[in-house]
Write a structure and sequence with these properties.
It contains seven helices and four strands; from the N terminus they run H-H-H-H-E-E-E-H-H-E-H. The chain has about 325 residues and is mainly α. Strand 2 and strand 3 form a beta hairpin. The longest helix is centred in the first third of the chain and has 53 residues.
Length: about 325
Amino acid sequence: IKLFCFSFSVTEDIMDTTDTNQVFKATAFLILTTISIPANIFVSYVFLRTFVTEGKLMTADIILCHLSFVNLMVALIRSIPQTLVAFGYKNMFDDVGCKFTIFSFRIFRGLSISLTCLLSTYQAVLVSPATSRLAPLKSRIPQYLIHIIVILYVIYCVSNFNAPISAVASFPNNTIPPYTFNLQFCFVSFPNYIGFISGGLVHFLGDLLFIVLMAIMSGYILVLLYKHSKRVKSLRSSKSRQSRARAEVKVSRAVVTLVTLYCLFFGVDNIIYLYSLTVLRVTILLSDIRVFFATLSQMFFFSNCRICKASVCAC
């Protein structure tokens, strides 16, 4: 009897701990989702209203508008299913639904990183001096911006064409095979170790390229801001020039903050992803942490996006 009572007590404690963790996870995902989706809808609405009332958008506005749309799609495609799973809702997709979800998520996640990189690059070009090698891009990026964005969409659609192949809703007898990512609402399974590693490394290196480029551009902006602040202190200028200079500094700092946070959160995301390539079966905890950091980065995007919008308009 004592042994039975002890076993029951241990089992009850484990169930209580599991329930507590599940409630905490569900609450965290619900908060992130309910903030990120309305925030990105609001940002998109602001830029669309500006376009309707003024008839045009500035270059940085166009990039930010696409970025808010892409982040909105990431939240809808990945965060909502993850939140529903956290509340115990399962089997929401069949195989076709899983393939479409994984394919769409890969596209919009890649666009989120590449558009943020494009934004930081354009801002670096915008604040660069006339003698810089980046100066010729000041007129070329706005001229070919739509072409650049369309090319990015096409590249990610083509490069992820094989993503749906490995996505399934469930396995026979609920047995998860090796080299499988468990997303809780879907599974991404690879036939062998070579496919598992090669697909993961291509994904990781692509993100790393944009993160490194963003870091370089942000560093370049910070150097220019430092030199600019020293020059402004030593010279007297008109109020209009000072106001314009302050607006440029403000938007540059906002972009640097946005890019730094993106590098941080997507860096953590990719470190976890790289670690997951070393195990046969990726645990649910790793999947939850990756989604948490990816969603959190969108919230910081929204907080800095308002500063970028106001400052760019002031310029």
